[in-house]
Design brief:
With 615 residues, the protein is α+β, with helices and mostly antiparallel strands. The chain has 23 helices and nine strands. The protein has a six-stranded antiparallel β-barrel with strand order 1-4-3-2-5-6. Helix 15 runs antiparallel to helix 16. The radius of gyration is 27 Å and the shape is globular. The chain starts with a helix and ends with a helix. Keywords: Membrane, Signal, Transmembrane, Transmembrane helix.
Length: 615
């Protein structure tokens, strides 16, 4: 269709005006789409601002810390205390099991508001932990978490070796049930206060939440672990075997804890690292997968359809209703929980504090020269910087139900979380080899168990890439007698699979020489060199490492609009001396995309940075 002077010359103005309107549409009003309902009092997880209350979830790091402390004491009593923390919990999702003096007349829904009092007469707000049928004479009173992390709840009993009962319900009293009235109850404060979330439950509930769930199951990453180990609760079985000093019974990757270690240090490392890298690591990915699955199941909604005309994402859900609003609370809560489980409640400053994966990644970046200072990362590990940015971008994608974009961020985040595992295996493969010639048994066992635990968290991913390389790593790093470590073989086996794992040599780095000899890195432990064809996932995050706090989809679209307009004007004006008065037709360039297989074994399209951001 021909364009004449009157319509050609204002094109750029119209394009910029359209950009302004689009930006207003995406970010106008409160800045949050319907359903987000951001609470201004939610605390930051470093640079990430949750839109739901997850202080109770973040407190799981206090369980981890308490377990670490008890294991470090090295006595039979302290090991028993650590086991109780692992199996019974202490600080996260506290609830009281109350015995009612009269049965419930009706069924009560999960989340029903409850109100009670402490021994000091202070009000205690709670919710019903689970649906309770009529006629029940017991109910589970979950203590309502505050959005302030330092005061999230004030009743911490369960397996806590030093119980805090200040904010617990009084032993004999009344509770108010929303729209139902008062009920007399009784319970034992030190015996009937429990925790619905434990580190153990991250693994024991894996089959239910990662394999048999209704939306998106089985989750692809978890399935690799199930296929490798042959059991659903592999993480719990690892930790249990280390506590009991017995052997695991996996299909592959067995650990012979029975009689292997003569000192306590080996078992301690297998337990305290296993709870983080096996139990918690997988559950973080579960929360991200769960959020992504809910997004895909619910599909686009009104503000998303207005922007993308309903064509974005491979949507196969129920028929869309005109004007359908975005209610993202459930999926946003799952995403926020993933961040809470990654960072925890104590990692307040970049590079300092904490007891979960964020803090452990900080430790490894010091060994491998992959943390600050730099203009982008500061004191933060490179993978942590990328993680926090991708968490924020995923949150923005969720706001608009950009489910394909969210799925890409889940894959990116999984790849980033793999980097410290690889670093740990490389570091302790070398350490194990060096310690062979020394007689310090405690250090040998500590190093061997540490490396074996890192390997246990990585082997299923590596096995899905290359079975032979996974076996090389296992035979050099396994828990058991007669193991001969081969550092160079392990390092080479891992590096051959970086592309499949979605990571790069640059992300992993090399083992830094602490004495400054042989240059920056230890001889033989230098970083490998990335091939010219980087991982497509790596290309994606390189295009986003400018420090933006979100995907800025509107800005990308605006840039694209302006660029197209400029191309039109250029094509109109370049060949003619009187362009504004000359007819001209323009055909946009055909889009191109190359398909590749990502680290999850799924086909994706490698697109330009702009199209990736828009997806």
């Amino acid at each position: 269709m021909p364009w004449r002077h009157r319509s050609q010359c204002p094109l750029l103005v119209y394009g910029l005006l359209g950009c302004a309107l689009l930006t207003t549409k995406v970010y106008g009003g409160s800045g949050d789409p319907p359903g987000s309902r951001r609470a201004l009092s939610e605390e930051l997880f470093l640079s990430y601002e949750p839109l739901t209350t997850v202080t109770d979830d973040a407190a799981i790091d206090l369980d981890q810390h308490a377990l670490d402390v008890q294991m470090s004491l090295g006595t039979d009593q302290s090991r028993e205390a650590a086991y109780k923390i692992y199996t019974q919990g202490a600080f996260s999702k506290s609830y009281a099991l109350l015995s009612l003096q009269s049965p419930l007349p009706i069924s009560l829904a999960k989340g029903t508001t409850l109100l009670g009092h402490t021994t000091n007469g202070k009000e205690v707000l709670g919710q019903l932990l689970e649906e309770t049928p009529p006629g029940s004479t017991t109910l589970k009173f979950r203590y309502h978490p505050s959005p302030i992390q330092d005061t999230w709840t004030n009743c911490h009993v369960g397996g806590n070796p030093t119980p805090n009962t200040e904010g617990c319900l009084v032993g004999l009293g009344q509770i108010e049930i929303d729209e139902l009235g008062s009920f007399d109850y009784e319970y034992e404060i030190l015996e009937d206060n429990y925790n619905a979330r434990t580190i153990q439950s991250f693994s024991t509930k894996a089959k239910e939440k990662m394999y048999d769930c209704n939306e998106g199951c089985p989750y692809s990453v978890y399935k690799k672990f199930y296929n490798y180990y042959g059991v659903h609760d592999y993480a719990d079985q690892w930790v249990q075997a280390a506590f009991q000093r017995t052997s695991t019974n996996f299909t592959r990757g067995n650990a012979q804890f029975g009689g292997t270690y003569k000192t306590d240090l080996g078992y301690r490392q297998a337990i305290t690292l296993g709870t983080v890298y096996l139990n918690t690591w997988m559950y973080i990915i579960r929360e991200m997968d769960h959020s992504s699955a809910m997004c895909s199941a619910k599909g686009p909604c009104n503000n998303h359809l207005d922007i993308f005309s309903g064509t974005e994402d491979e949507y196969h859900g129920p028929p869309l209703v005109a004007g359908q609003e975005c209610n993202n609370d459930d999926m946003m809560h799952a995403w926020d929980k993933a961040v809470a489980f990654y960072v925890g409640s104590k990692a307040k400053t970049a590079g300092q504090g904490g007891h979960l994966l964020f803090s452990m990644a900080q430790e490894r970046c010091l060994n491998f020269g992959t943390c600050g200072p730099s203009q982008h990362y500061g004191l933060m590990a490179r993978v942590n910087f990328e993680m926090m940015q991708s968490f924020r971008q995923g949150q923005e994608a969720l706001k608009m139900r950009a489910c394909s974009s969210l799925k890409r961020h889940v894959r990116l985040l999984t790849a980033y979380m793999t980097v410290p595992l690889v670093q740990g295996v490389i570091l302790y493969a070398r350490e194990n080899e060096l310690l062979l010639a020394k007689s310090n048994r405690e250090k040998q066992e500590q190093s061997q168990a540490t490396g074996a635990t890192y390997a246990a968290a990585l082997l299923p991913l590596l096995h899905a890439c290359n079975k032979e390389d996974a076996n090389i790593v296992y035979e050099s790093m396994r828990v058991g007698r007669g193991v001969t470590p081969h550092f160079s073989k392990v390092k080479a086996a891992l590096e051959r699979n970086y592309y499949c794992l979605g990571i790069t040599c640059e992300l992993v780095g090399g083992i830094v020489d602490p004495a400054g000899v042989n240059g920056k890195y230890l001889l033989g432990a230098e970083p490998c060199k990335d091939p010219s064809h980087h991982s497509p996932l790596d290309l994606f995050f390189r295009d986003n490492q400018s420090g933006n706090t979100g995907p800025n989809i509107a800005l990308v679209i605006c840039f694209s609009v302006v660029l197209v307009v400029l191309m039109i004007l250029f094509s109109v004006f370049i060949g003619r001396s009187h362009a504004c008065a000359t007819d001209k037709e323009f055909d946009g360039p055909a889009s191109s995309a190359t398909k590749f297989q990502d680290g999850n074994g799924e086909l994706m399209e490698e697109e330009s940075p702009v199209s990736l951001e828009m997806a």
